[in-house]
Amino acid sequence: MPVAQINFTGRKTIAGKDISIVLDDQASPVSFEVLRLALQDYSLPTTALVRLEAYRGPVRIPFDLGNVSNCELLGPTALPEFINPDRIRFRVKVTSVDQQTQGQILAEGSGFQADWKSGNTESLLPVRRVSDLDQEVYHLTFEEDGPVLLVNNRIEEWVEMTRDHPYFLSLVYPTAVRTVLNQIFQDKDVRDLESQDHWSSQWVGFAERHLKAGNHPDFDDDNNAEAIIDWIEGATANFAKQNQSYTRFQNEWTRGNHT
Q1: Does domain 12-116 have CATH number 2.40.50?
Q2: Could you tell me the residue ranges of all domains in the chain?
Q3: What percent of the chain has pLDDT over 90?
Q4: Nearest CA to 75 among 34, 116, 120?
Q5: Averaging pLDDT over each range in 23-27, 113-117, 196-200, 235-239, which range is the top one?
């Protein structure tokens, strides 16, 4: 059987306003539900196949939704492949089944973000439990869609530790803030401050507004290196101050009778 040729000519872009997905971020495993998928304005063949894909990083989970004329919205559907809800995105593809154009992508939309059922919002720094850290307690890494804090899976109460433990909160997170902002400054390939949806833009906005660091200097101006470093250090200091990092650490140290 010959492999169908995929022709990209004339592909239509599905807009975010035409899809609505809710993610149950409190469920175990995480689950989602498609509330709306409107394709009637794209002049697509009624027989064209519709596929939804949940993805994060290299993980891709496909779901067939039928065809354009009879598109089935998914009810609550589990995503056991994902331990937590952070940065799960969705993609929709509509492909032709006509003999001459079979396999051609007629319309596509990607990067769709679900609303969280709990009303919470995504963390700028998702935490994931992984098995390959050996003697490291945690490791900050950068993926295509932003920084991730990896935690050693041998720590059984890792969720409580990363959310509540004074030592972790006071020692790890200020350093993570400084590291992420430095990475945005130093690596042009990960930086897109023009797009409000890009993770680097969201982090810089977080530093400017929430951490009250003020407007960032132009990262592309080589003459601003010192000013940028000062801006990053100011943001980090404000983060530590807002979260009472030293006080948390000192209180826990004293409580443990480390004198």
Answers
A1: no
A2: 12-116, 127-255
A3: 69
A4: 34
A5: 235-239
